[in-house]
Amino acid sequence: MDLFSFVECAKQTRSLKALFDLLVSCSSEQGFSQVAYGSLTDTGPARLPEYLRAAVTVNFPTDWCERYSERRYNAIDPVVRRTTMLSAPFLWDRLADQHQLQPGETRVLNEAREAGLKHGVTVPLFGPFGRLSVVSFASSFDDADPERRLSHLNALAWQFHHAFAEIAPSSEGTCQMQVALSEREKDCLRWVEEGKSSWEIGVILKVSENTVNFHLKNAMRKLGTNSRTHCVVKAIRLGLF
């Protein structure tokens, strides 16, 4: 299921469970069938560190959720810790290489793998007023390739996050935006959605790479986003192209 299909299906439901099931279905097609969603700043039912108790937005193995809660792993979970420090999606497999993990953090990752969460991707989701939410995707397959799936899972996470906020607006606080994108801005965003780089878009549209970057930055500014992926997601969500 592509992003446009996800958006159309998401618009037809007002149920948080149905929306989460849709996310799981889409991520399962990428080999990542275990998903957890929550907020690091709010106090609602899906918030972290209790996010592993929120049955509506988590389908991690029950035994792992119980152990995580009982041992209070939220205090030493390297995924939760790095989510507050990093602005871009990250792979669990890379945490030990890119950060000096403490013994407790390494233990959490190792036990998660033993519980069936063998490879993972976490997407920090930034909202207004400093709000921070997160979606984590995990795979039970040894040969899962999270790096290859990263871009698609990132876009899915943002789409789900916006749809969740529309159904439960108190969790994120939304308002109707009146935004007008130029045709060139729309063209650039369409090609970003296809995974093209600025250079590739420039070749396709027969303009310079700097011109492409100019249009993309304008679109990001208009939509109040800080990444191309978030910009594409928001534009799709608002029906701008």
From TrEMBL:
<dbReference type="InterPro" id="IPR036693">
    <property type="entry name" value="TF_LuxR_autoind-bd_dom_sf"/>
</dbReference>
<protein>
    <submittedName>
        <fullName>LuxR family transcriptional regulator</fullName>
    </submittedName>
</protein>
<dbReference type="InterPro" id="IPR000792">
    <property type="entry name" value="Tscrpt_reg_LuxR_C"/>
</dbReference>
<dbReference type="Pfam" id="PF00196">
    <property type="entry name" value="GerE"/>
</dbReference>
<keyword id="KW-0805">Transcription regulation</keyword>
<keyword id="KW-0238">DNA-binding</keyword>
<dbReference type="InterPro" id="IPR005143">
    <property type="entry name" value="TF_LuxR_autoind-bd_dom"/>
</dbReference>
<dbReference type="InterPro" id="IPR036388">
    <property type="entry name" value="WH-like_DNA-bd_sf"/>
</dbReference>
<feature type="domain" description="HTH luxR-type">
    <location>
        <begin position="174"/>
        <end position="239"/>
    </location>
</feature>
<keyword id="KW-0804">Transcription</keyword>
<dbReference type="Pfam" id="PF03472">
    <property type="entry name" value="Autoind_bind"/>
</dbReference>
<dbReference type="InterPro" id="IPR016032">
    <property type="entry name" value="Sig_transdc_resp-reg_C-effctor"/>
</dbReference>
